[in-house]
TrEMBL record:
Cellular component terms per the entry's GO annotation: cytosol
Keyword Protein biosynthesis: yes
Role summary: Catalyzes the attachment of proline to tRNA(Pro) in a two-step reaction: proline is first activated by ATP to form Pro-AMP and then transferred to the acceptor end of tRNA(Pro). As ProRS can inadvertently accommodate and process non-cognate amino acids such as alanine and cysteine, to avoid such errors it has two additional distinct editing activities against alanine. One activity is designated as 'pretransfer' editing and involves the tRNA(Pro)-independent hydrolysis of activated Ala-AMP.
Enzyme superclass (EC): ligase
UniProt keyword list: Aminoacyl-tRNA synthetase, ATP-binding, Cytoplasm, Ligase, Nucleotide-binding, Protein biosynthesis
GO MF terms held by the record: aminoacyl-tRNA deacylase activity; ATP binding; proline-tRNA ligase activity
Family label: Belongs to the class-II aminoacyl-tRNA synthetase family. ProS type 1 subfamily.
Written domain comment of the UniProt record: Consists of three domains: the N-terminal catalytic domain, the editing domain and the C-terminal anticodon-binding domain.
Protein name: Proline--tRNA ligase
Entry EC number(s): 6.1.1.15
Subcellular location: Cytoplasm
Originating organism: Oceanidesulfovibrio indonesiensis
HAMAP family: Pro_tRNA_synth_type1
One record GO biological process: prolyl-tRNA aminoacylation
Length: 563
């Protein structure tokens, strides 16, 4: 490619809304442009890097037995209603209606669509295992789109889905994806760490996130200084949450509305928190019946008494036996729900709330059915306990570190959550109908472009890992009016192109300073400078962008240097 013909509008200044270096540099290097909040166009250079990332991911997925497909971005709401996620997903799901008034959504993920694809079609254990993946544009109406490609609303994801006939097979599928991710992220030139993640509300039992280590990461990781323990903060908090909770220590209380959700799992998913962190939720509409649910505390409770206040009818407690089981648990809060709750603790302290409250021990959550008028505003709260550097490693008791990370990949055992909801079954060896066991595996293809830059930059610009640089070599012609220089540049350009090297020829009539600056800004790994004086001595100069090291290459030996 010739730079004179390339649409590469570089900028001296970063846009005002760019907070992190990758966002600034991607815009300045002419790789992306913002269309609107969280939605970007990839210019030719950005597109090339994105394609290279996607290609590495694709090769590793194929090598691990994945088969590439391409699913629709527009998904029927009916499928989401089948799994219950239509109500659970919250405002991140962009919902639209067609001309007939039917519900659709823009795909934020594809469990429903892929499960619909295989159910009915896959009938025998002989057709399993199956791993289907795609590289595709996702839409999530993120509450806070920011940091350019890092947290967009429209972004490119590789999502894979595995289907197995038994738990053993599902383990193998998970392991194969874990290994493929490790290989892919290495090839992408990233410094990363695989960490345990909470499998939370999605219904799985096992999960890892792949984190690119960077101070600008939105995630906090907990790693041990002595053993192999590494987890994301939420997962680590689950370990620490087993300790009694001191209310005085809770720094943050989140209060959000959770319309239409009925279980702790749904609220936890909505709040992006582990279920164990949901201290109190007030919910409505389960099985058509409004309900209030739950939660977790640390004091022994003898009795809960509920008094019906304005408009609340049909109080139905889970039963006195269960109340007895709610030992080691107690909570209660405000909110004009119209119940008076009296909690009588073992030490005979009595607490009264005009609200409702109930307790449950952590492993045994109870639902309290209450008819609540529709016009009552309900809220859910979650309690966050911060983990600090003073905490011991949950695995070995050693010291911990808490670096920041960018989640670039996520592998997840789904179990039978979707196959059960959508009736994806097959006949096993004995001719018996069984549910498929699933896994899902995501890679943030466009987020990787940003994450790679967060890790690889200097004062002059991007320092691309060679595997994802838009061009591997920039050939700078210094002196567009010097015939010998132009002729030699053209000759070397042809030669490299013929060798299959990704080369960009800067044949513009710009001053040398402009060419050097642009080449450094975009971060081509190797810059070859063809200048009049050096050429007269039979050499060109090559610069390694990362180290800044320069070397003179004899023009005669130029070809071999790129073998
Ligand atoms: P996050 O915690 O950052 O919101 P997530 O856990 O919601 O991400 P997943 O559902 O696990 O994301 O999706 C798989 C991958 O897609 C993530 O690991 C991440 O790399 C990427 N991804 C998710 N949301 C975004 C986004 N808004 N912009 C860019 N990439 C994203
Ligand atoms: Mg998210
Ligand atoms: Mg996440
Ligand atoms: Mg994730």
């Amino acid at each position: 490619m010739r730079l004179s013909a390339l649409y590469m509008p570089t900028l001296k200044e970063a846009p005002a809304d760019a907070e992190v270096i990758s966002h600034k540099l991607l815009v300045r290097a002419g790789m992306i442009r913002k269309l609107t909040s969280g939605i970007y166009t990839y210019l030719p250079l950005g597109r090339r890097s994105l394609d290279k990332i996607a290609q590495i991911v694709r090769e590793e997925m194929n090598a691990a037995g994945g088969q590439e497909i391409f699913m629709p971005m527009v998904q029927p709401g009916d499928l989401w209603k089948e799994t219950g996620r239509w109500d659970v997903y919250g405002p991140e799901l962009l919902r639209v209606k067609d001309r007939h008034g039917r519900d659709y959504c823009l795909g934020p993920t594809h469990e429903e669509v892929v499960t619909d694809l295989v159910r009915g079609e896959v009938r025998s254990y002989r057709q399993l295992p199956l791993n289907l993946y795609q590289i595709q544009t996702k839409f999530r109406d993120e509450i806070r789109p920011r940091f350019g490609l890092m947290r967009g609303r429209e972004f490119v994801m590789k999502d894979a889905y595995s289907f197995d006939k038994d738990a053993h097979g599902a383990d193998a599928s998970y392991a194969a994806m874990y290994d493929a991710y490790t290989r892919a992220f290495k090839r992408l030139g990233l410094r990363f760490r695989a960490v345990q993640a909470d499998s939370g509300a999605i219904g799985g039992s096992y999960s890892h996130e792949f984190m690119v280590l960077a101070t600008t990461g939105e995630d906090t990781i907990v790693t041990c200084t002595q053993c192999e323990y590494a987890a994301n903060l939420e997962k680590a908090e689950v370990c620490y949450a087993n300790e009694p909770l001191d209310r005085g220590e809770c720094p943050e209380l989140v209060e959000v509305e959770t319309p239409g959700m009925h279980t702790v799992a749904e609220v936890a998913k909505f709040l992006e928190l582990p279920e164990s962190k949901i201290l109190k939720t007030l919910l409505y509409e389960a099985d058509g019946k409004p309900v209030a649910v739950l939660l977790r505390g640390d004091r022994e409770l003898n009795e809960i008494k509920l008094k019906n206040l304005a408009g609340v009818t049909n109080l139905e407690l889970a039963g006195p036996e269960q109340v007895k089981k709610w030992t080691g648990a107690a909570v209660g809060f405000a909110g004009p729900v119209g119940l008076e709750v009296e909690r009588i603790y073992a030490d005979e302290e009595i607490m009264r709330d005009t609200d409702w409250a109930a307790g449950a021990n952590k492993d045994d959550m109870h639902v309290l059915h209450v008819d609540i008028p529709r016009d009552v505003k309900l809220t859910a709260s979650a309690d966050l306990r911060t983990v600090t550097m003073d905490d011991p490693c949950p695995a070995c008791g050693g010291g911990i570190e808490m670096p920041r990370g960018i989640e670039v990949g996520h592998v997840f055992k789904l179990g039978t959550k979707y196959s059960e909801a959508m009736n994806a079954t097959f006949l096993d060896e004995a001719g018996k109908e069984q549910l498929m066991i699933m896994g899902c595996y995501g890679i943030g293809v466009s987020r990787i472009l940003a994450a790679a830059i967060e890790q690889n930059n200097d004062e002059f610009g991007i320092v691309f890992p060679p595997s994802i640089a838009p061009y591997e070599v920039a050939l700078l012609t210094l002196g567009a009016k010097d015939d010998a220089v132009v002729a030699k540049s053209e000759e070397l350009y042809e030669l490299l192109t013929d060798k299959g090297v990704d080369v960009l020829l800067d044949d513009r009539g710009e001053r040398p300073g402009v060419k050097f600056k642009d080449a450094d800004l975009v971060g081509f790994p190797i810059q070859v400078v063809v200048g009049g004086k050096a050429l007269a001595r039979g050499v060109v100069e090559a610069k390694d962008r990362r180290t800044g090291e320069k070397a003179e290459l004899p023009v005669d030996a130029f070809e071999e240097a790129f073998d």
